[in-house]
Write a structure and sequence with these properties.
single chain; 18% strand; alpha+beta; Ribosomal Protein S5, domain 2; 4-stranded mixed beta sheet
């Protein structure tokens, strides 16, 4: 039950205009599994998975994995950026560790990943 409560605290991009604003910023990088778009904003995140990836079970599995990777690392992402995480066709059969590694790698390449300091 704690997992469900934690997901409700994620601020997501909801409207078409919010997604368009991030896409139109034209700042994107890709790797084998994901494409990550970013723009200045309020720290919201959006998840996109096309029908080309697979049926609804496959698409929702990707979104669950990407959401969990975001949830675990949201404190390490700059708060002044809106991001969109888009699945590539190769993400179809990947597990959580591959999706998480791709996500962190793209955040670092975008320079929006802030390392946690030991307190």
């Amino acid at each position: 039950m704690a997992f469900i409560i934690a997901l409700r605290n994620i601020e997501t991009l909801k409207s078409r205009q919010e997604f368009s604003r991030v896409y139109n910023a034209r700042r994107s990088l890709a790797d084998y599994n994901l494409i990550l778009f970013q723009a200045e904003g309020t720290g919201k995140v959006g998840f996109v998975c096309s029908r080309k990836i697979g049926n609804s079970v496959v698409r929702h599995r990707f979104v669950r994995l990407a959401r969990e990777a975001y949830r675990l690392h949201k404190d390490e992402i700059r708060k002044d950026r809106d991001i969109i995480i888009m699945a590539r066709e190769n993400a179809k059969g990947q597990g959580f560790t591959a999706i998480e590694a791709s996500f962190i790698g793209l955040l670092k390449r975008h320079s929006i990943y802030v390392e946690k300091t030991a307190e």
